[in-house]
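Hello forum,

I keep getting stuck at the same step: I have a sequence, I want structure tokens, and every attempt I make locally crashes halfway through. Rather than fight my setup again tonight, could one of you with a working pipeline run this one for me? It's a single chain of 137 residues.
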Amino acid sequence: MKKLLLFAAAVLLFASCSVQQHNTKARLTEVQTAIVAPVVADLDISPTKITYTYKPTTTELRKTDLNTIINNAIAWALEENGNADVLVNASCRTSYSGLRIKSIIITGYPATVKEFSKPTEPYDYYFYHDTPYIPAR
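Reply #2:
Ran it on my machine without issues. Output:
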């Protein structure tokens, strides 16, 4: 009797620890978040070329890809050199230590945006023509 009671208790103990599996389905929907329109930016480009060396952390190397690390390096270079908006004629060099990225060297001309305006030429004109746009009179 004791053996039967002990066996029943063991069965109940193992049955209470069963694994339950849930399946869920998700549907991705596209949501329009912005209206895209052509715009021209007038830039104030600095005459001095900057060089910035960025050393990524080990966590960043493990969790992000190379393009994200390069974008972070450009952002830090702009912040350290006058908090500019964009880096014109940017170039990037990566130095490796074995298979690991040791540092990223960013060079370019920092520029700030003076104003935004609408384009005077048709937006898609330069995609199809090599000659300058001359409006009809």
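The helical segments are 2-16, 58-63, 66-80, 125-128. If your local run keeps crashing, start a new thread with the error log.
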